Amino acid sequence: MNLISGKPGASLLIAMLAVSLPGSLAAQEHEPVMTTVYGEPPADLSGLNQGPQVEGFISARGGNKMQVTDNDGDRTVVIISDGTEIKGAGGFLGLNSKALDPDALLNGLPVTVKTVEWGNGLVASQIRFRNSDFKTAAMIRSGTAQGFAEQTAATEALRGRMGDIDKYNIKSTTNVYFGKGRSSLTSQARNDLCTAAAEAKAMDNALLLVVGYTDSTGSQEFNQRLSEKRAGRVVNYLQQACGWKPYRMLTPTGMSEADPLASNSTYEGRRQNRRVSVNVLVSKGLDGL
After folding, report:
1. What is the mean pLDDT of residues 136-147?
2. ∠ at Cα 231 (256, 185), nearest 5°?
3. Among 88, 125, 129, 224, which residue's beta carbon has the most beta carbons within 10 A?
4. Count of domains in the chain?
5. Contact 104/148 with Cβ under 8 angstroms?
6. Does 224 fall in a domain?
7. How many angstroms from the chain centroid is the CA of residue 269?
8. Which residues share a beta bridge with 276?
């Protein structure tokens, strides 16, 4: 049987998920076509021909096989060997990249997989994912989410970079502001964040999207790191102090000096641009239900 080939999916900002959490390979309603390969995959993959790169989320695990589904719904089965390198990337949370065990490959986790050809199948030579995504996937697996609707929202957050923002209605936006070159929250920002979280909790099916920005002072590289750090600080405060659940949070991002609210040529304009925007979103398909 032939392996289902995957298409690298475009990494976008937000997605709407219309399915429940995926289960094991045996539990799939429509079992994917599996490649028949006999024996154990080699630990040394260096001499094998390079295969396609696969991007998507892990939709099933079974033995040493992993199924990845891209944003077009195409499914690719890859084999995990002793030579597969598995690492999480720190992303906006600033966590260090580290080698991980195959047990870290949880259902729902967005991954980028480099492959090599082996027999009639594909073996993963390298698997990468964001540590922030792994934390959410681990939370789902541990049963922290309550009920089907919240589990769906959690998986939706994990797939947050694989869709279209037009599928959501923005119900409100709260901006909190920062000092020059700083990422610490003011007392006013803390109050505003918890107020925004409380208002969002009152909305059915609401999710939060946190985006960090800077003014134009400093280099692009510095501003990118600073915008990500500001977004991370806001996310942590929303979850730890305001009680916002992690599985109702879409993937945060830093946008550096993009999308200024005001001109960077004035002091007041730069002050307005040193911000983090907390957007309350509801899927258009669920809005009003």
Report:
1. 53
2. 110
3. 129
4. 2
5. no
6. yes
7. 32
8. 176, 212
Nearest to 252 by CA among 97, 107, 108, 132: 132
Is the pLDDT reported for residue 233 higher than 60?
yes
Which domain does 171 fall in, by range? 164-283
Same domain, 209 and 248: yes
Pair 135, 168 in one domain = no
Neighbours of 35 (CB within 10 A): 18
Same-domain check for residues 130 and 55? yes
274 occurs within a structural domain: yes
Determine the pLDDT at residue 15: 31
In-domain check, residue 153: no
Q: Are 168 and 277 part of one and the same domain?
A: yes
CA distances (Å), 83 to each of 52, 56, 70, 76, 203, in order?
A: 17, 21, 24, 19, 47
Whether the CB-CB separation of 136 and 154 falls below 8 Å is answered with yes
Which residue type, as a one-letter code, is found at position 222?
A: F
Q: Which token pair is 163?
A: 């869709």
Residue 223 sits in a domain whose CATH number is 3.30.1330.60
Task: Name the pairing type of β-strands 275-283 and 54-62.
Answer: unpaired
More confident residue, 141 or 137: 137
| 152 inside domain | no
